[in-house]
Amino acid sequence: MQRRLWLVFTAVLCCVLVLTGAAMASEAPQLVDEASIPEVIKAITLEEKARLVVGDRTWVQATGSAGASPAIERLGIPPMDLADGPAGVRISPTREGVDDTFYATAFPIATLLASSWDVELVEEVGRGFGEELLEYGVDYLLAPGMNIHRDLRCGRNFEYYSEDPLVTGKMAAAMTRGVQSYGVGVTLKHFAVNNQETNRFTVDAVVSQRALREIYLKGFEIAVKEAKPWAIMSSYNRLNGVYTPQSYELLTSILREDWGYEGFVMTDWGAGDNPIEMMIAGNDMIQPGRDAHVEAIIAAVENGTLDEAILDLNAARILRGVVKSPQFRGYVPSNNPDLEAHAALSRRAATEGMILLENNGALPLTIDKRIAVFGNGQIETVKGGFGSGDVNARYTVSILEGLIAAGYDVYEELARSYEIYIKGVRQLPEYSLEGRRWGRAPVPPQKPLFNDEISKAEQYADAAIVVISRNSGEGSDRTITEGDYYLTAGERDMIERVSAAFRAAGKPVIAVLNIPGPIEMVSWRGLVDAILLAWQPGQEAGHAIADVLSGKVNPSGKLATTIPVSYSDVPTAKNFPGYPEDNPVQVIYEEDIYVGYRYYSTFGVEPAYPFGYGLSYTSFDYNNIHLTTSTLSDKVIVSVDVENVGPVAGKEVVQVYVTAPDGKLEKPALELKAFAKTKLLQPGEKQTLTFELDARTLASFDEKLSAWIVEAGDYAVHVAASSADIRGTVSFYQAHDIIVETVNNVLKPKMEINRLSKF
Ligand code: BGC
Q1: Ligand 1 centre from 738 Cα, in Å?
Q2: What lines the ligand 1 site, CB under 6 Å?
Q3: Axis crossing angle, helix 489-504 with helix 451-460, rounded to the nearest 10
C-alpha cells in the first residue's frame, strides 16, 4: 500500500514540477541524489530526523517483511523495505485484497552453502536473492548471517556459515556481491559475537581482543572490505559489558575507522536499552520503530545530551542508503521473479553443499534399485530452520517425493504407512500445526515399526534409506538430549532393526541426515553403510538428495564445521551458554582463539569428522605441491595439481592451512588461509590451483601492540583435503617480524579471562 502511495505521490510530484517549474513546486530541497543530502539535512526538522532514524512499523503489515524506514514525502524521501533472511526472501505469500501470491524461493541454509566451499555458486545464489528482492519491492535483505559456529548448540547456527572466519567472510562477501549486483542492499548480521540464543537480548559475551579480531570480527572485516555491504545489523548481546548497538568502539572505532565501512548500521529488532547511546555509537537506525525512541531522541537533542550534529550524521548515512535503493530509483517491481529458475538454482546449490560422510560402496545407488525408506523425515522433510530465517516457499519437495520423482522403485506400503501416521499425528492437538508461527513445529515421535513391516520391506527392496531430521531456530538453543543432539529411542530402534534385517540379507543401509548442525553419530554410524549429510537443503530438498544418492551429482561438499565425537569434546561445552547456568548473564569465551578445528588440531582431540572433510564417488591425487617463492617479500604463492584418479567426474575442495611459529603469540596448530574448489574434473583430468598468501593473511593479532603482526620464523604451508588429511607441506622462512597494521586499541574485556593456552 505504502509503496503504491509513494509511486502515486512521485507521479503527481513530477506532473507538478513539469507544470509549474521545479523552483516553484517545492520550497523544501528534495532528495535527488547523494550530493543533495547535505541540503536535505539542513531542511529536515528535528522530529523528521528522529523519525528517520527509527523504523516504521506500518509497512510491515502490508508486505509481511520485517521492517521499514519511514517516508518523508515533503523532502522526497521514500521508505525502504527491509526483509529477512539468510535462506530466502521472507515476505508474506499473500496480501490483503490482492489475488496474486508472493512466494519466495527457499534456498539451502547458510551452513550448507558454506559446505560447498564454492564462492561463485554462493554469488549466483545471491543473484537469485537479488532478483526476488527487486521484483518483490524489497530494498534491503536482512542477511547474510555471519556469526561463528562457536558451539553446536546455538539455535541459529543454520543461518550462519562456519566455525571458521575465512570461510564465513568469503561466503558473505560472495552473497553480498550477488545480491547487490541487482541494486538492492544486504545487511550483514549480527554484528557481533551473537553466538547463542539463550538470553540473547541481554547476555554479556566476554571475549579477548585477540579472539575478537581473529575469530569473531574477521569474517565481517573480510566481507566489509571485499564486498562493500550497504548495511550492517548490530546484535542483541552485550560485548565486553556494552550492548553492541551502543558500542562506539565496535561501530565506529573498528567498523568505520579501522575497516573504512561506508554504509549504515541498524539495530536488531528491539535491541539495547539506550537510543541516545546508539546514535552516538554510530548505530544509525533503530528497529522496529517505537514512538518512545523518537521522543527520547527529540528530548535528548533539546536538553543537550545528544549533539544534533551526531543525529545529522546518522540521518545522512541512512539517506545514503536510501538513494541507492530501488524504491528511490522509482523501480516498479513486477512481483513476478523467475521462481522456476531459482528453484533449479536452489536444487543445484543444495547438491553442491551436501556431504558424504561415510560410504562403503553403497552409494551411488542407481535408480534401477528398489528402496525402502524409513523415518518420519521422508514425509516432513525440513527445508530450513525456524524463526526469521524461515521462508514462505510455495512447496518443499519431501525426500520421499524426490526419490519417487527420480525414478526409484520405492516400497509403497511402507511409504503409505508413514504418510498415514504423520497425517494422523498432526491431527492430535499437541502436534497440530495450526497457528504455529515462524515455521516452528512440535516434533512427533518416530512412527513405530512392526517386525513384519521391516521384513517385508527388506524382502521387497535392494537397499534401505533411513532419514533422521532435526530442526532448530530463533529464540532457543539446541539441547544435548534425545531428539536433538542424540537420537531418540525410536530412531535408535529404527536404525538398529533396519540395519539388522537388511545387513543380514547383504543389503545396504543408507542414512540421510536432514539436520541444521552436528548430532551424535559415533554410537550408530557402524550400523549403516553410507551417511549423506544433506543439511536442510531448501525447497528442492527431495530432488537434490535424490540427485546425490543416485550419482546424478557426485557429492563435493566438505564440512565447514567440525563434527565432534561427543558434545563433551567441544571446547565451549563447559562455558556455553554462560553463568549462572539457569539464567546466564555472562558468557566468558575462555576457549579464546581455539574455536572449532583450531582447538581439535592443537589439543589433539580427535573429532568424528574433521573440519574440511567430505567424501566423493571418485578420488583425487594432489601432485607437484610447491611454493613459487621461498620468502615472504610481498606474498608467497602455493600451487598444486589436482587430478581426478577415480572412475567418475567430480569436484574437489582444496584447503591451505598454515602452521605459524610460536613467538610472543601462541599459534593454533592449523589455520585455514585459503581454499578453492576445482571445476568438474573428468576421470584423468587435472587442474592446477594456486593460492596467494600475503602478510595480512598470515598475521595474528597482538593485543600489546594493538596490531596485526607476522612473527619471524618457519611457516609450514599445508595443502590439504581436510584439516586431518594433509597431502603435502611446503615451508618458508620469515626473517623478521612484520607489523602489518596498527588498529584502534578498543573492546578490552573489563575482567581477566582465564584463557585456554596450549602452553
Ligand atoms: C532477528 C534478526 C531479524 C529481525 C527482523 C530479529 O529477531 O534476530 O535476525 O533480522 O528479527 O526479523
Answers
A1: 41
A2: 66, 84-85, 142, 189, 268-269, 388
A3: 40
Q: Torsions phi, psi of 360, nearest 5?
A: -100, 25
484 is catalytic: no
- Integer Cα distance of 273 and 18 in angstroms: 47
pLDDT (tens digit per residue) in 14-51 = 444 444 444 444 589 999 999 999 999 999 999 999 99
CA of 142 to the centre of ligand 1 (A): 8
Distances (CA, A) of 149 to 219, 297, 460: 12, 36, 42
Residue 438 confidence (pLDDT) above 80: no
For 433-455, b where at least 16 C-beta lie within 10 A, e where not — what string? Answer: eeeeeebbeebbebbebeeebbe
pLDDT exceeds cutoff 70 at 60: no
pLDDT value at position 24? 42
* Nearest Cα residue to 733 out of 747, 745, 716, 746: 716
Q: Does residue 375 contact residue 493 with C-beta atoms inside 8 Å?
A: no
For residue 190, the CA-to-ligand 1 centroid distance in Å is 9
CA distances from 344 to 106, 125, 128, 340 (A): 11, 11, 10, 6
Are 701 and 635 in contact by the 8 Å Cβ rule? The answer is no
List all residues 6 or more positions away from 342 whose beta carbon is below 8 Å from its beta carbon: 105, 107, 128, 131, 132
Alpha-carbon gap, residue 149 to 449, rounded angstroms: 36
Q: Are 208 and 217 in contact (CB under 8 A)?
A: no
* Rounded Cα–Cα distance for residues 486 and 482 (Å): 4
pTM of this structure: 0.96
Ligand 1 pocket, mutate which of 57, 60, 138, 142 (most atoms under 8 A from CB): 142
Residue 580: CB atoms within 10 Å:
8
User: Scanning the structure block, which residue is given the C-alpha cell 494422523?
Assistant: 424
Residue 514 and residue 317 in contact, taking contact as beta carbons nearer than 8 Å: no
C-alpha cell at position 552: 546424478
